[in-house]
Amino acid sequence: MWNNRPIIVRIKRHENVHPFIQALHAQHIPLKRIVFREQEVSFETTMHYLPKIRRVRRRFRLKMAVFYADELQVLRAQLWTLLGLALMIVIPILCAQVIWRVDIEAATPELEQRLGKTFQNTFQLETPLSKKQLPSNTAIRQKLLEQHRELSWVHIDKHGGRVLLRPQESPKQIEQTNEKLASHLVATKSGVITHFNIKNGERKISINDTAYEGDVLVSGVIESGTDQVFVGAKGEVYADYWLECSFKIPTKITMETVQQKQWRVLVKGIHQEKVDYVQKKDLPNWLDPYVSIVEEQQTKTVQVELDESKIETLLLPLLHEKVLRSLPEKTIIKKENLLQAKWGNGTVEGKVLFLVNENIASPIQGLQGE
């Protein structure tokens, strides 16, 4: 392969040039594109014949320069070129099977640190690692939501060898306090008890027990010998239960996505439009009437068409958010299973099974002696 590489031979004009070329023909050396110029003569051949050409050249005492004819070609029929092309194809394929980084992008550095510690302690993963070793999106999301109940969802994006976790916090709501203590806390739904947050009262059920609708979870009356002492019942009792929901939505939907925040300088008299900003910088009194520096939250409206490839990344998160908004505060959805989905006539309809963790305790009033 190397000996067949084409070369260009250039010889300065001399009276021995013609005999030199005839001698090459006599030795059956193939010459192509022979060009006679004013100062030189050039022709093409291959590396295979270069030793013979040099021996003949020494006999006629000619000055000769040799160049590769394929120097300007991007791809050449050479061993190293073929090996390089093979490596260019194989290396990206091999690297694409490896996770090099797992990053967390949260609203605050404190939340990023807590989630990073939870992720490392739960899965014990060290990068780089094979994609086969990485747990599924559902497993990662479920573990993080179980241990961080202030989150409503965890978005998981995979770009090449990078995995990006973007947690979404639940909307903060003002708790309404009720000064009057209830006699008991009873179950409004059936479910498996996961944890308590009790301020007053006595537990009547344990963690991992199944509670049924109407059962007393926390009693506000404590037995003291033959007496009954009313202390009241106050708190929360969380339980897991399965919720089946039906849905029917169009396949073409318009979404508004939150973009990166950015600072903007507004000059009075030039920027007339009204700007919705997240925060505003404090400026000196003499400058504030004329200039404003605000931080904007940019949004982008996009139209997306749902198909079967977007069930995990788009359809389930949409249904997750819709169902979560209809549930009481502090409720989280640990898991979702798509039972069925039917596509047709520009819509998709089906059923989803959600594993919900909710405060099922409801206060009831009664006589203190009960």
UniProtKB/TrEMBL annotation:
Record protein name field: Sporulation protein YqfD
Protein species of origin: Lysinibacillus irui
Transmembrane segments: 79-100
Keyword Transmembrane: yes
InterPro entries in the record: YqfD
One protein family per Pfam: YqfD
UniProt key word Transmembrane helix: yes
Keywords of the record: Membrane, Transmembrane, Transmembrane helix
